[in-house]
Amino acid sequence: MSQNKLPRAVAISATGLWTPPETISNTELVEAYNTYAEAYNHTHSAQIQAGALAAKPPSSAEFIEKASGIKSRHVVTREGILDPTRMRPHLPERRDDELCMQAEMGLKAARLALEKAAKTPRDIDMVIVGASYLQRAYPAIAIEIQAALGIDGFAFDMEVACSSATFSLQRAVDAISSGATRTALVINPELASPQVDYTDRDSHFIFGDVAVASVVERCDDCHTDTAWKVLGTKAKTMFSNNIRSNFGYTARAADVDPFGPGKLFHQNGRKVFKEVCPIAAAHIESHVRELGVEPAEVQRYWLHQANINMNNLIAKKLMGSGASIERAPIVLDRYANTGCAGSVIAFNLYSDDLPPGARGVLCSFGAGYSVGSLVLEKIAL
Ligand code: CO8
């Protein structure tokens, strides 16, 4: 589904990026995992020998960097993740009258975006929180942030895994373009670490925590030199079980462990790689061409950040020999996969240097499967 002729010109006027100060390197993560695996194999040696249980194989920092491009990740807390007897973050529960962790992260990014856009909460009338996981069902995290900022309007949460950011930006663009909303705050707080199985060698290294936010408004209302006009948006979904989390409230009624097998993030990474690369490249190609632009002419691609080899392949398909890290920047080396936030981090860090008139594509691809893109053009102040 594409939306290329917007009734009213809309812009992303600024973005905010909140990066948790704590980091974990591959070496630290692998050391904790290998200590855990050794102890697990020792404790379960009888079952492993009898073939009733599989031994935990060792992880390797070299494999992680080569297979994914990830060198380290930011997390809201290191506490617990690196403890071989715990293998999950320790985030104490907060009282109902305290700001929840995900709202706190989102609020920090939102304040940075508002400041950069030269806007105040009084200018905002819609807040969307889009994330791969939501800390609770209700009240919406978006409404909690709305209240913390004192925004008069409405707010809601939405979940489309890795495409939660592009899809929530698209909802904001549509609402402003139609005239239903004047100025929107789109917030993507990815609190990924609680859903990572740090005892699983295949996925323990993939994710990091981060929060990003964007101010979306009418081009006529923009007063920043960081604004990008939205030329068009396009979204596509196709059902796949290759990336899945079965965590959910029905576990209680099914009498199963809510954190048992299949309940945390798991994937068939090879299949995802093979299937999603051509889908994403074809999606972007057709989207920019619908707007009369050749893929190779696009100055910058802010691609979803899951795997460096995926991004290199897609960049090559789009730009041929003109592909480079400058034109399709990588942030996952230091942020890891941050769910839906990755492409917005790349946009935040690598867009201000481009001149007015430059064109770029912000794109996500991942679980669902889902693909979302926004074709953007830098505005002259
Ligand atoms: N250390 C050493 N060896 C390892 C490790 C490790 N840590 N992990 C796997 N191996 C081994 C495997 O066991 C395998 O061994 P063997 O050949 O003996 O069977 C060998 O290395 C090769 O394994 P793979 O084939 O799995 O390795 P790949 O080269 O395919 O790399 C990747 C694995 C990195 C996972 C890669 O497949 C990949 O990145 N694929 C793309 C996946 C992707 O993009 N997924 C998107 C997921 S994110 C998303 O959609 C958002 C969901 C929301 C989540 C939000 C927060 C939780």
Give the helix/strand layout.
Layout: E1 2-3, E2 10-18, E3 22-25, H1 26-43, H2 45-49, H3 61-68, E4 72-75, H4 101-116, E5 126-130, H5 141-149, E6 154-158, H6 164-178, E7 183-190, E8 210-218, E9 228-237, E10 243-244, E11 266-267, H7 269-290, E12 300-302, H8 308-319, H9 332-335, H10 342-349, E13 359-366, E14 370-378
Parallel strand pairs: 5-6, 5-7, 12-13
Antiparallel strand pairs: 1-9, 2-8, 2-9, 3-4, 7-8, 9-14, 10-11, 13-14
Helix pairs in contact: 1-3, 4-5, 7-8
This protein binds octanoyl-coenzyme A.
Brief account:
31% of the residues lie in helices and 21% in strands.
DSSP E strands, number = 14
CATH first level of the domain at 231-378: Alpha Beta
Classified in CATH, the superfamily of the domain at 231-378 is Thiolase/Chalcone synthase
Radius of gyration: 21 Å
Shape: globular
Helix and strand string, N-terminal first?
A: EEEHHHEHEHEHEEEEEHEHHHEE
Strand content: 15-25%
**pLDDT averaged over residues:** 96
Distance between the amino and carboxyl termini: 31 Å
Under the CATH scheme, which architecture of the domain at 231-378 would be assigned? 3-Layer(aba) Sandwich
What does the largest sheet look like?
Answer: 10 strands, mixed
Please mark out the parts with pLDDT under 50 across 5 or more consecutive residues, or reply none.
none
